[in-house]
Inverse folding.
């Protein structure tokens, strides 16, 4: 046990602490030439080339335009042109600040923390969100899983934290830690739901390790279809904690089943032309037209199913093939959605609903895994803010449909409570205070 704790603590020491910031590239799958930034909560300072550009602070009612050019980033505020710079930085003045990002032709998003913008090329901005690790994590949980019970979000937060800590340097060569897409983990907005923040807070300091105490890889997918995959059937490495397991909990969920119809000649010619398979061989042709998987397989006529899935844009590799004699098509009847390795999110949702414990669900999907709790995370501190979030949830339930001002949104209120308590003061919700009264670094 001492050896396990030593290895885990060594890993944690070598990585950023929870309260430190991570850098996440936003809109990484989009080409963003122009970005409009407005301010939902709090005040921001604007820097250009690392020098304070504008006073007073930017806040509600103001808008910043950032545009990629051949020489840098063009900056304008409320229509007034400031010029072109190597980079532009919007730096939050306190912990409860919210930015609203409006790229052209892309859905609006909101984030907390700082924004660093430079030009990727003359017509594409590189947009980096510098944000506290746990705040980022809550946004990941909101983007990655659905549900209503806090244990669902607690589990997702634990596996997402483990993955992030293990892969903190994934984009080091690019100048940031993570991208915002499934190449890393989806991070498509700030967390706006208190139940998700509750589950994330309940998981504080918790990570998943193997029997030797090393952080494990924690892949997850939408739905296993009833059986997860061995890691070597999808990727190269055979990992002892990523073993195929029966997963009946994934049945009868949103992504449990799918069907795809493909022209028969297109299907057969794909194997003949792309993989040099002899489709005139009766046994080969029969397998291609009547392929079955009562249990998961890794190949069809020697061709990796992962390759077939990619080339035909299938939801999973867990499918059967039937030949429709009344048409010129084959029909693929599939199960599940995703690569199938590790945790099934919809299986997790079902297990939580059935009353399975948090740790037993993780052990079901990650063979032999253990949950390590960072001893540096105070249980009293976590319990305190869990209770604060639970109060906010109860208040929302007691006042359904109540319209809140931005200042009174649950996140801003939570931060004000935390700021007050960290200064050993008591927050009075009835006090008519100004924003400046609660702008305190903690």
């Amino acid at each position: 046990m001492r050896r396990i704790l030593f290895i885990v603590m060594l890993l944690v020491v070598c990585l950023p602490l929870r309260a430190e910031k991570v850098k996440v590239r936003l809109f990484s799958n989009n080409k963003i030439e122009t970005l409009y930034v407005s301010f939902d909560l709090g005040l921001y300072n604007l820097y250009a080339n690392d020098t304070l550009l504008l006073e007073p602070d930017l806040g509600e009612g103001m808008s910043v335009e950032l545009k990629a050019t051949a020489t840098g980033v063009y900056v304008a505020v409320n229509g007034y042109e400031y010029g072109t710079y190597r980079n532009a930085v919007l730096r939050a003045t306190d912990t409860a600040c919210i930015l609203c990002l409006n790229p052209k032709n892309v859905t609006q998003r909101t984030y907390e923390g700082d924004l660093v913008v430079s030009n990727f090329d003359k017509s594409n901005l590189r947009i980096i969100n510098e944000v506290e690790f746990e705040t980022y994590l809550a946004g990941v949980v909101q983007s990655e899983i659905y549900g209503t019970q806090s244990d669902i979000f607690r589990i997702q937060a634990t596996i997402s934290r483990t993955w992030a800590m293990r892969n903190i340097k994934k984009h080091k060569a690019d100048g940031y830690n993570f991208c915002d897409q499934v190449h890393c983990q989806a991070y498509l907005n700030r967390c706006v739901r208190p139940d998700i923040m509750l589950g994330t807070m309940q998981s504080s300091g918790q990570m998943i390790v193997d029997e030797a105490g090393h952080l494990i890889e924690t892949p997850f997918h939408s739905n296993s279809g009833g059986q997860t995959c061995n890691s070597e059937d999808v990727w190269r490495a055979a990992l002892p904690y990523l073993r195929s397991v029966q997963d009946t909990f994934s049945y009868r969920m949103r992504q449990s089943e799918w069907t795809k119809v493909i022209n028969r000649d297109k299907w057969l010619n794909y194997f003949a032309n792309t993989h040099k398979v002899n489709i005139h061989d009766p046994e080969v042709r029969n397998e291609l037209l009547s392929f079955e998987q009562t249990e998961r397989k890794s190949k069809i006529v020697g061709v990796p199913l992962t390759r077939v899935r990619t080339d035909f844009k299938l939801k999973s590799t867990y499918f059967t093939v039937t030949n429709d004699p009344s048409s010129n098509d084959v029909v693929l009847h599939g199960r599940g959605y995703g690569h199938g390795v590790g945790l099934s999110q919809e299986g997790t949702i079902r297990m939580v609903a059935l009353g399975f414990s948090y740790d037993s669900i993780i052990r079901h999907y990650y063979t032999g895994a253990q949950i390590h709790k960072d001893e540096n995370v105070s249980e009293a501190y976590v319990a305190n803010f869990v209770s604060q979030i639970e109060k906010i949830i109860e208040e929302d339930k007691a006042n359904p449909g109540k319209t809140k001002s931005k200042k009174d949104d649950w996140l801003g209120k939570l931060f004000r409570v935390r700021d007050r308590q960290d200064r050993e003061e008591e927050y009075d919700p009835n006090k008519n205070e100004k924003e400046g009264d609660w702008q305190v670094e903690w």
